[in-house]
Design brief:
This protein is of the alpha+beta class and about 350 residues long. About 55% of the residues lie in helices and about 15% in strands. A hairpin with a 2-residue loop joins strand 1 (about 50) and strand 2 (about 55-60).
């Protein structure tokens, strides 16, 4: 792999982890998971948290991934556990993708993994360390390390084959407004809600209001001044021109950029409550796909990952052992760790 590819792939890993952190922080609700000291972490190196078909995910893998993200931060227990649960879900998805690549004979070879482990051992030796010390420090087994390396090499191999200039240019053409610097002027009506019951009520209220506005029985700006609980109510809900990224919550920005002038969104839920949007103007951008190549690579990377997970999830057996907290895939309910027997 060329040096620029290594740097780019490292940036994708970091970005993906930050994305997971944001999702976890927004998920809400305390999830029980106790802190573990160094001895306990080492002892749990071979404790299995989940199985994806016949491939284990170890408790230590989840804990190591968590440390990679939060470092030595002393987070509140509930937030730490939300992140740990999100990390396990992320690793499960990675295993699902790796299962897909293996089945299609697209994964990195065992020889390539062996070579990478040998290369790591050489780097550690030059630092007066060794592989055993490295594994002990991270609290993981060699099998877990090899699975981690296998995932990284296989995913990079797949990206090298998929992220062609042709594909990036095609993605740009299909989603031009998202990348060419276009700005959208949008207005909103926000009804605050926190509980599931409140969210359902506000959503139904905004659905009725949406139909009323579409049928000409009410003007959006007037309804915003009367009903909205956002600061923009004084301006008839007007939020001004917004960019696709970096200014608004992703749920809002994504929906706004899918609207044409005069068009209304469906009710949208964010941590702030339930929103109804109206696009009032579009200011076209002038960037080409070459101007936003890195953004396109990130977007297509995430798209490829999500598409494989969605297509393969039903084909893969995922079983959680209960060694640490997790969310039941069917119900979304928190399952608490099982006490040791």
């Amino acid at each position: 792999m060329m040096s620029w590819q290594r740097r780019w792939f490292s940036s994708q890993v970091a970005l993906f982890r930050k994305f997971v952190v944001v999702l976890a922080l927004l998920s809400g609700g305390p999830l029980p998971l106790a802190h573990t000291n160094a001895e306990e972490t080492t002892a749990r190196a071979l404790v299995v948290a989940a199985m994806v078909d016949d491939v284990p995910i170890y408790v230590a893998e989840v804990e190591a991934a968590l440390v990679d993200v939060i470092g030595e931060q002393d987070l509140p227990e509930s937030r730490r556990v939300r992140l740990a649960v999100a990390m396990m879900e992320q690793i499960v998805d990675q295993r699902i993708v790796l299962h897909h690549l293996r089945r299609r004979k697209l994964a990195a070879s065992r020889h390539r993994v062996d070579a990478e482990v040998k290369h790591l051992a050489g780097r550690l030796k030059r630092r007066d360390s060794n592989l055993a010390e490295h594994l002990a420090t991270r609290g993981i087994s060699e099998q877990a390390l090899r699975e981690e390396i296998h995932w990284r090499l296989s995913w990079q191999k797949h990206l090298d084959e998929q992220l062609t200039d042709e594909r990036l240019a095609h993605h740009f053409d299909e989603h031009r407004r998202d990348f060419d610097g276009t700005r959208v002027r949008v207005s909103q009506i926000l009804l605050k809600a926190t509980s599931e019951e409140e969210i359902a009520e506000r959503r139904a209220q905004l659905e009725r209001l949406r139909e009323e506005i579409i049928n000409g029985g009410r003007e959006f700006a007037a309804a915003a001044r009367e009903l909205s609980e956002a600061p923009s109510r004084a301006a008839g809900g007007d939020l001004g021109l917004i960019a696709r990224r970096g200014e608004m919550h992703e749920t809002i920005a994504s929906a706004a950029f899918g609207l044409e002038p005069g068009e209304l969104s469906r009710p949208l839920v964010t941590p702030h409550g339930v929103h109804l949007l109206q696009c009032t103007a579009v200011e076209p951008g002038e960037k080409t796909w070459l101007d936003v190549r890195d953004e396109l690579r990130r977007a297509v990377t995430h798209q490829l990952f999500a598409e494989i997970v969605e297509a393969e999830r039903a084909q893969v057996a995922v079983r959680f052992t209960g060694a640490i907290a997790y969310r039941d895939p069917a119900s979304g309910r928190l399952i608490r760790p099982q006490p040791p027997r």
